[in-house]
Write a structure and sequence with these properties.
The protein has helices spanning 3-20, 25-36, 45-63, 68-71, 74-100, 104-108, 111-120, 126-136, 142-165, 180-193, 199-218, 223-234, 240-246, 248-263, 270-280, 282-296, 301-311, 317-324, 335-350, 355-362, 396-407, 420-428, 441-446, 462-474, 488-496, 505-524; strands spanning 389-392, 413-417, 433-435, 454-457, 480-485, 501-504. With 526 residues, it is mainly α. The chain folds into two domains: 3-363, Up-down Bundle (Na+/H+ antiporter like fold), CATH 1.20.1530; 381-524, Rossmann fold. Helix 3 crosses helix 11, helix 3 (45-63) crosses helix 14 and helix 7 (111-120) packs across helix 18.
Length: 526
């Protein structure tokens, strides 16, 4: 069997096994690489290209969801900056301790090398974090927006760092990139006129790779950052969300190459494994630093913990540093222990399970609850008023249900939606809804539900609907719960979990179409 066939078969088996163990498939792809490396399987040159394409398209998709105003908020830029300093110091200190003990690369390097490694590992992996947020359906929650904001600031710091460390500055022509800003209306106009066929994802890929990656790289600016900024220029356009969805499967398939390529870098030696293990000791400190900084920004303890756990991993940027920096600044031998540390940092958070909630409770003594008026405005408890019905998730299904319940049945209805852009749009249309994260356990502890008769679960992620159902019943809600699902097995699971009524999405669409057709025939009859 040739190397390409072996890689394809291994990543499929690894992904399936990870799914059976209820772990993210990407961990199976990593494991496939680690299994293949000792067997002599070599990564073909095309794998690197596929991995780079996946990262570029991913960052373009991230940009489509970025609100630039969020980047200038203190809880984003100040947290990112202070955390980078703390993390760099902690990691450099650990490497200095290894040097005192005479361990391998740490002993051969000096304070400059320790600080370079420390700074490189102070960043979180954009690829991993966004994948995890997407799997949880949390990219538009407060936690997701904070995490993505921090990642964007870290990417900007990375551009400056590489330019200074390599002794190269962007081309003077890079100043012309600001012309992309006045060109944004043209790009947004083209997006508005595209259909729903293959031209839509093709448009996104071309923007990400040509004026994004290729143009920025040619002018001495990080190409990945260019793809992200091109996405930002389209963010907020009414069809930007549809564009992001059209790229979802393409991006996921390409990113398989990214994760398996890390595993194929090879297994470390004993000494390199020791260095990687010591580097991993910095992860809990990095995580706690994020928790404290977010808490000081007046966020609730749970928001601080969940955002911190999403960001607590090492970035693949650490590997880029080893390759990019001259040998007299950093020994290329650091590549293997850093690759092992980065890969392990992806695995460990996935094994945490429900421990973030346990950590929230454990930190209660040191990070006490604040009065509501002292909390960040975006993180205060919700008030349902006198609503009789609550709709969780105000996408097309949820908003249609909201209108039907209010207009046809005369119920007092309120919607809860995590995406602030969607909230603003629907509020402008006169829809009664509030911004909130229905996956937050504290939400159900604080909401007054005694006057609520019906809760409709219409969030796009099945796991979120199931978690909300579990928490509703755990907190004593005895009213009716209805849920919509995309797949038959999800419908069976949510009904078994305690929902009173369930509807498979396409079954509901067919019934609604039939109702409208009959109504139209009746109206047209003489």
């Amino acid at each position: 069997m040739d190397d390409v066939s072996a890689i394809l078969l291994a990543v499929l088996v690894g992904g399936v096994l990870a799914g059976l163990l209820r772990l993210p498939p990407l961990l199976g792809f990593l494991a496939a690489g680690f299994v293949l490396a000792p067997l002599g399987v070599q990564a073909p040159p095309e794998l690197s290209t596929v991995a780079d394409l996946g990262v570029t398209v991913l960052l373009f998709g991230v940009g489509l969801k970025v609100d630039l105003r969020s980047l200038v908020r203190r809880e984003v830029w100040l947290t990112s900056s202070v955390h980078a300093l703390v993390s760099t110091g902690v990691t450099a200190g650990l490497l200095g301790l290894l040097a005192v003990l005479g361990v391998g690369l740490a002993a051969d390097g000096g304070p400059r090398a320790w600080l370079l490694i420390g700074f490189a590992l102070s960043f979180s992996s954009t690829v991993f974090v966004v994948k995890v947020l997407e799997e949880r359906g949390a990219t538009q929650t407060l936690t997701g927006r904070l995490a993505i904001g921090v990642l964007v600031v870290q990417d900007l710091l990375a551009v400056v760092f590489l330019a200074v460390a390599e002794g190269t500055a962007p081309s003077p022509w890079a100043l012309l990139l600001v012309l992309l800003v006045p060109a944004a209306p043209l790009l947004r106009g083209v997006l508005a006129r595209l259909g729903h066929d293959e031209l839509l994802p093709l448009y996104g890929i071309v923007l990400a790779l040509v004026p994004g990656y290729a143009l920025f790289s040619a002018l001495g600016v990080k190409g990945d950052l260019g793809a992200l900024l091109l996405g930002v220029l389209l963010a907020g356009q009414p069809r930007s969300a549809e564009l992001a969805r059209s790229l979802f499967s393409i991006k996921d398939l390409l990113l398989v190459g990214f994760f398996v390529s890390i595993g194929l870098a090879g297994l470390p030696t004993g000494a390199e494994l020791l260095v990687a293990g010591v580097l991993l000791l910095a992860l809990p400190v990095q995580g706690l630093a994020f928790v404290v900084l977010f808490y000081l920004a007046r966020l609730r303890r749970r928001t601080a913990v969940f955002t911190a756990t999403a960001l607590t991993n090492f970035s693949e940027f650490g590997l880029i540093v080893v390759v990019a920096l001259p040998d007299d600044l950093l020994d290329p031998g650091w590549a293997t222990p850093l690759a092992a540390a980065v890969a392990a940092s992806f695995v460990l958070p996935s094994l945490v399970g429900d421990r973030p909630d346990r950590l929230v409770v454990a930190l209660r003594r040191w990070l006490p609850d604040r009065p509501d008026h002292r909390l960040h405005p975006d993180d205060r408890p919700l008030d349902l008023g006198d609503a009789q019905a609550v709709v969780l998730g105000m996408g097309r299904v949820g908003s249609a249900a909201h209108r039907r319940l209010a207009g046809e049945y005369g119920l007092r209805v309120i919607g809860i939606e995590a995406d602030p852009g969607r909230v603003a749009q629907l509020q402008a249309e006169g829809v009664h809804l509030i911004e909130g994260d229905a996956t937050d356990p504290r939400l159900w502890e604080e909401l007054e539900l005694h006057h609520v008769e019906l809760v409709l679960l219409a969030m796009p992620a099945h796991d979120n609907n199931l978690a909300a159902l579990t928490r509703l019943r755990a907190h004593g809600f005895t009213g009716a719960v209805a849920a919509v699902t995309q797949f038959d097995d999800d419908l069976e699971e949510i009904l078994a979990g305690g929902a009173d009524i369930g509807l498979q999405l396409y079954e509901g669409a067919g019934a609604e179409l039939a109702d409208r057709a009959v109504a139209r025939r009746t109206d047209a009859a003489p």
